[in-house]
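Consortium newsletter contribution from the modelling node. Members have asked for a concrete example of what our holo predictions look like. Here is one, prepared for the zinc ion complex that several groups have been discussing at recent meetings.
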Amino acid sequence: MKQQQPLHIYNSLSRKKELFKPLNPNHVGMYVCGPTVYGDSHLGHARPAITFDLVFRYLQHIGYKVRYVRNITDVGHLENDADHGEDKIAKKARLEVLEPMEIVQRYTIGYHKNMDALNVLRPSIEPHASGHIIEQIEMVKKIIEKGYAYVSNGSVYFDVEKYDRNFDYGVLSGRKIDELISNTRELSGQSEKRNSFDFAIWKKAESGHIMRWPSPWSDGFPGWHMECSAMGYKYLGETFDIHGGGMDLLFPHHESEIAQSTIANEKSPVRYWMHNNMVTINGKKMGKSLGNAVSLDDFFTGNHPLLEKAYTPMTIRFFILQAQYRSTLDFSNEALVAAEKGLKRLMEANDTLQKLTATPNAPNQEIDRLLKACYEAMNDDFNSPIVIANLFEAAHIINAVKDGHTAINFEELELLKKLFQVFVFEILGLQESQKSDDKSVVDGLLETIIQLRQEARARKDFATSDVIRDKLQALKIVLKDGKDGTTWTLN
Ligand code: ZN
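And here is the predicted structure:
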C-alpha cells in the first residue's frame, strides 16, 4: 500500500467518516448507479462519473484490485421516479418514432463519448438492466417467497410496512414510515397497493407498453430499484464494499435497494454508501423541465444561451474536482473561467517542471510535505480541492525556481515530478489538452481567419463573412460571436 495513512470514507449509512476496511484485504467491489440513457449527458451525469472515477483511480493507486460495476438503466425508470407514468426511454422512443433500443444505443454511445472526453475510465463491468431481466425475476420470486411482497393485478409490490416492522426502512435516508404516510397522497393507479409507499418490484405492462417480458405474474417489466439490487448481487455478491451514486438517488432508490437485498439475501448489501452532491446552475437546481440543463456537448461547443464561451472537457473535469464531492457545486461562467485559468496554470507549471534543472545544495523546498499533504487529503474522504491547493503551492515553487528566485536539489526535483505525475495525471486524471506546438499554430491560423471575417463584416461584405463561417463549419469549427469578440471551438 502506497498510502501514508489509512483511508477514511464518509459513509451515508452511519453518517460519519469511517476507516475503510474492504471485505477482502486486496480487492474492492464497487457499484455505482449509472445513467438512464434517454437524453444527452449533462453536468449532472459528469459529477458522479468523475467522483467515482477519482475513487476508482485512487483505490487502484494505493494497491487495491477494484471491480467497478456501473450500470446502464435502459428499462423500468418511469417518469418522476414513480411507480406510475410512462417509461422514460419508451416515451423518448414514441416521440422520436424509434425503437426503444435505438434510443438506448444512441445515448449510450453519446454518454461514452462524453465520458471518454472527460477522461473518465471505463468501469470493469457495465451491465444493462434489460440484459438482466431473468436475474431480476429471480429476486422478485425470492422476496415473494419470504413474504415481503404481494401480487396485485399482475404487478408485484414490496411490503414496506411489514419490512419496517422487522427491519428499518429509512436506515439510509433517516426517513420514518409515519412521515411517508402523511407525505404520500393516494394517486390514481396506486389503489392496487396496500400502502401508498409500497414500491413496485414488477410492473404489469399496460397495452401499448413496448418494453415487456413474460414473468409468472404478467407480461411486464421490473421496477426501477430492482436492477441495481440484482446486478450488484450478480457481479459483486451478497455484500460488497462501496455503493455510490448521486444524492438524489438516496431515497427512494437506494433505500429500496437495501430493503430488497436484505430480504432476498438476508444480508445488508453494502458496507459503505457514498453519495455525491448535486450541481446547481446559478444557484438553481438543474433539470430538463427547468430549461437550464446544459448538455456536455453544449459546454464543449459553447452552443447554449447560458454559456459565454466553450469550455474544454478538462476544464469541466477540473471544475468538478475543485469541490469536494459532498459539497454542492454551482455552475456559472465566472466559476468555469476561473477553473480554466487554474488548470492552465497547473499545466504550464508541469511544462516548466520538465525543463527545470537541479542545483546541488539548494535550500529545502519541503516537497515531501506537499506529497504527504496530498495523500492525507485523499485519505480524508477524497478531498480533491485540498490536493489541488497543494499542487498550486508546488506550481508556485516551480515558477520561483524557473525565475531564479530559489533553487531545488536533484532529489526534490525528482519528487516534484513524481508529485505531478501521480496527483495531476494518475489520480485527478487531468490531461494536457493538445500538443502545445500544434495548438499555437492552429490558434494563430484561426485568429487570422477570424480577423479577416471581422474585417469583411465591418465593410458589410456579409457574403464573404458567411462563406468563411460555412467553410469553417464544414471542418467542424464553430465560431461564436460574444461580447468579448469571436471565439472558436472544434465540434
Ligand atoms: Zn441504481
